[in-house]
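Human: Note token order:
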Amino acid sequence: MKRAVVMCVIAALVLLGGVALAQTDRSRPFPKAEPGYVLEFPRDEGSHADFRTEWWYLTGWLEDDAGKQFGFQVTFFRRRPGIDETNPSRFAAKQLLFAHASLSDLREGRLLRDERTARAGFGLAEAQEGAMNVYIDDWRLQRRGTDGVIHAAVATDDFVFDLALQTEQTPLLQGHNGYSQKGPGREAASHYYSVPHLQATGSVAIRGKRFAVRGSAWLDHEWFDLVLDEAARGWDWTGLNLNDGSAVMAFRMRDAQGRERWASGTWRERGDTRTFGRDEIDWLPVRRWRSGRTGVEFPVEWQLRIGERTIRLRPLLDDQENDARGSTGTLYWEGPVRAFDEAGRAIGRGYLELTGYGDPIRM
């Protein structure tokens, strides 16, 4: 759902060049996610610029011919500050864009990461409405042409990936027809869909060494005014591509004491989709890992009950802490996990995200 990076006020003010909050233009209120909205594609793959916050979240597993494995993640965040919006200058920051990317090198046991920040405009950064096309410089996520292929490209000093992702399944609407409630009240909610089982091909390079890769991926897209109500501190989330073609998403929101405040999940199996409510999902931490850099402890291994079934989630690497406090003010854990059934059989692969275990998430 995702999710992890929050557009903190400090980062926004830096990009705005010190514009005072007193200049906030209230003539265009932020719309809220509402039940009854009908998602349409490809229209809703694009930006929803009136909403306060939006993200496109791509995660997946890759493997080369020699069996070397990688986990990858790239996320683009769009933020409408709602400040000085009547300013006619092209330099006024009407939309802010953030991007995070990471590569988990499973054989070497290391996580490589980078991030970017920009104001939209001038052909350098944009989140297009009506079509999936979001970019900051040469970091891009876009669907090209009519062949249904999504292209993801990231280039950093330490790693590069360039992937083509073929859509094999229809979008999976989360919550109630794409309306995903995030708490007991309706003030916290998003419009949310996923595209599981994307088939990935392309290349990865680490410090100049290139690997031809293939694998599978998961795309989340959400837009909203608010996803954390006043009592929520953070969330736990997973998206899983199961070996039989099924797809599973589950999340829970936590309060300041670490207690579950809300939970939801979706399981699509053989074309049938079932949505699970708060009382049908349990997140039980099995093992924890403490960061030597920040001292924050994350529950990295889980037993997840969803409906009548139980899934065990085990990380490929313990150290997958992503410290983005210098840009967007967040510290989170995110990385590839394997999924096992109650008998211990491997049933799939996916990603796990854990937020709010250091300081609370601030939206």
Remarks:
- Residues 285 and 302 are 5 Å apart (CA to CA).
- The domain at 9-355 is CATH 2.40.370.10 (AttH-like fold).
- The chain has one helix and 23 strands.
